[in-house]
Amino acid sequence: MNCRPRIRASLLASCLVLTVSSACGGGEAPHSAAVGGSPAAVVVAISDADRAAAKQTFETVCFTCHGVSGKGDGPGSAGLDPKPRDLSDKTWQASIGDEHLRNVITMGGAAVGKSPAMPPQPQLKGNPKQLEALIQHVRGLAR
Predict the structure, then answer these.
(1) In the chain, which end has fewer C-beta atoms inside a 10 angstrom radius, N or C?
(2) What is the domain count for the chain?
(3) What is the pLDDT of residues 40-52, one digit of tens each?
């Protein structure tokens, strides 16, 4: 079985997506993020509006447990056991992929074998740009 035609097709599809996404733009400078864990992952353009919406989601939903800086010290964390994940931990950040974050955010902790206290945010499945911007925000907490 020769896999080269499939690999070639995947690479061509990726190039096409990159070309289209870079050609389509409004007044804002888009930022790219890969969606999916494969080499042929789809790239979405993330606008400043997507980043602002993601930041607002973090500051109104996620911060309750994770805290503004992501250290797991939000106002709702006091009564939780286990304590919320310290999203600013560089070692933890390096140990997980974006697909894991995507699943935890959209399906909740229980769906991925983590704390059921982590609620799902299924509305973000329908908004991949905001979801990817939220993942970038979480990644930025480790800096």
Answers:
(1) N
(2) 1
(3) 455 779 999 999 9
